[in-house]
Amino acid sequence: MIFATVGNHYQGFDRLIKQVDEIASRTSYDILIQKGYSSYCPRSARYFEFVPIQTAMEYIRTSELVISHAGIGTIILCKEYGIPLIIFPRRKKLGEHGTDHQMEIAKAIEVRKDDHIFIVYEGDQLEAKIAEVLAKRKPVPGINVGRGNLIRAIQAFIEGQN
Length: 162
Description:
Blueprint: E1 2-5, H1 14-24, E2 31-34, E3 46-48, H2 53-61, E4 65-68, H3 72-81, E5 85-87, H4 101-112, E6 117-119, H5 126-135, H6 150-158
Parallel strand pairs: 1-2, 1-4, 2-3, 4-5, 5-6
């Protein structure tokens, strides 16, 4: 399964949801989308708005690939579970967030060159990146970051210390 998530931010992220839904219409992969507050309702992929955190964590843990906004929680869970991740950051200029911190996070991760985290900035690049990631998918050693040390784990991850 491919799991796409936009997190809990109050602004919708229709750009990602539409793109993933279009891809779902052309692929045999099972795609599940967490659409949050987005107004677009997928036609080709299964979707839901929100679920309890434990359920979302299970979707991530059992996915072959996760596609996500640049949410630190999702990034850390993918690292912890060893799941490949494609980050598609929200953009302030497109009304997807109030700041461009997701672009900053994506660029910081991109510089780090993690073998299992990929950054896509434009929707027309997403389908090719999905195919590339799934074609070369290999097991990723999980990293137990520990919930009690979340702030330290985020800082270490961004600074490339993990």
